[in-house]
Amino acid sequence: MNERALLLINHHSRQGKQRSDEVVAYLQNLGLELFIESTDEPHHMTEMIHQYKHRVDLVIVGGGDGTLNAAIEGLLETKLPLGVLPLGTANDLARTLNIPNSLPAACNAIASGKIRYIDLGWVNGKHFFNVASLGLSVKITQRLTKQAKRRWGVLAYAATALKVIWESRPFSADIILQGRTISVKTVQIAVGNGRYYGGGMAVVFDANIDDQRLDLYSLEMKHWWQIIPLLPAMRDGKHIHWRNVRALEGQEFEVYTRKPRPINTDGEITTYTPAHFRVIPKAIAVFVPN
Questions:
Q1: Is the separation of the CB atoms in 105 and 289 below 8 Å?
Q2: Is 195 helix (H, G, I), strand (E, B) or coil?
Q3: pLDDT tens across 69-97, in order?
Q4: Which residues contact 230 (CB under 8 A, 6 or more apart)?
Q5: How many CB atoms lie within 10 A of CB 132?
Q6: Which one of 155, 160, 198, 249 is most buried, counting C-beta atoms within 10 A?
């Protein structure tokens, strides 16, 4: 593979700093000519991608889901394909795309040159790969520290979730799908574009990141303890069959709440309700394993 690649590594991601030299060696051994940039501020990625758009054939991003999300605008504007190196904590986009956690194998997936065109989710002008949600997941994001993620990895999500669930209280929302309004009392609404989020939970068991649909679920429990037995089913997306879980699918949703509520996109709080969600089919090209 004699192509030129812009390599962007987030040194604040869980494995970014300590494994960057290893990544460079693997990619160079596979024949890639690298332009290497590191950033402690992922929001600079769009600017960097634009700087190199006429000098490279692809963009490789090393970091977690938040880092990958920060590259979306630059990828959309330049139409450059994306190589994913899972150097973060949850690595849910990599899991959705079957990209291995092994760095040599992830590098080989990029060098193999197999492209998959994937959808993006969109909410209030903000794009996302995996999931946008409000309710419990926002509180988890607010509580989850970088130190905990770095030290405990995916276990940090589970421990923080248990604390948040104990304090959860239902809120009222209106969900609009194809002109129909559904009024709910819920502790969480999640809208998925990909399959995995939150360190390996599945939005829906059959979701794909190129199925040109969004999958919405709403957890409509009255008491915090009702969520606990649901958690194992959420690992494989089978929770949608439970009695207190509402599941919907479509290309577009609107969600209204009595007061503005924060929305988490790929692990970062980026917008508030009222929210307009839609899917953008085949928006970005990504290298995936054969």
A1: yes
A2: coil
A3: 999 999 999 999 999 999 888 899 999 99
A4: 219, 221, 239, 242, 244, 245
A5: 30
A6: 198
The pTM of the whole model exceeds 0.85: yes
User: Environment class of residue 59 by beta-carbon count within 10 Å: exposed (0-12), middle (13-18) or buried (19+)?
Assistant: buried
- Tell me the HSE value of 53 on the side-chain side, using a 13 A CA sphere: 16
Length of the chain: 290
pLDDT digits (tens, 9 = 90+) for 8-30: 988 666 564 667 788 889 999 99
pLDDT top residue among 128 and 41: 128
**How far is C-alpha 205 from the geometric centre of its chain's CA atoms?**
16
Q: What are the sequence ranges of the domains in the chain?
A: 4-113, 126-281
Task: Please tell me the CATH superfamily of domain 4-113, with its number.
Answer: Probable inorganic polyphosphate/atp-NAD kinase; domain 1 (3.40.50.10330)
The H-assigned helical ranges of the chain are 16-29, 45-52, 65-70, 72-78, 92-96, 103-112, 136-143, 146-152, 154-166, 231-234
Fold of 126-281: Tumour Suppressor Smad4 (2.60.200)
